[in-house]
Specification:
Elements lengths: L3 H11 L7 H35 L5 H5 L5 H9 L1 H40 L1
Helix pairs in contact: 1-2, 2-5, 4-5
Length: about 120
């Protein structure tokens, strides 16, 4: 997540009387809550992806899979394997439900914050 503007505002407000400004406080709360939540979620998902790749590397078909080729063992693993079904279910919970909810909520709250900024600028 890009935070350059927020970091500039935070540094500026630390050195000025803007600490008591309600808009500055709203922006600070927004980034402190949503920014950390989404960043943590991104890290967790990234770790899960790497963990899955490490797991797949244990399979004889891994090299073929990386080359876009298929083998009978690979097809059985992906289409009939209980382990893979669990991996997909876990990823659906992490990315498809939790992370997506965080991002949707972030977007809604970011629009509200932009509206407050526009009102202040008028």
């Amino acid at each position: 997540m890009q935070k350059k503007g927020y970091e500039l505002l935070e540094n500026f407000s630390d050195n000025n009387e803007m600490k008591n400004d309600t808009l500055v406080n709203t922006i600070t709360r927004f980034y402190n809550s949503f920014g950390l939540l989404i960043d943590d979620s991104n890290v967790f998902i990234k770790e899960e992806v790497f963990k899955n790749i490490e797991r797949f590397k244990q399979e004889d078909w891994f090299v073929e899979w990386s080359l876009g080729e298929t083998t009978e063992e690979m097809i059985l693993f992906f289409y009939e394997g209980e382990e893979y079904r669990k991996i997909v279910a876990a990823n659906d919970i992490l990315a498809g439900k939790n992370h997506q909810l965080f991002v949707k909520t972030y977007k809604i709250e970011a629009k509200k914050l932009l509206q407050k900024l526009e009102e202040r600028l008028e």
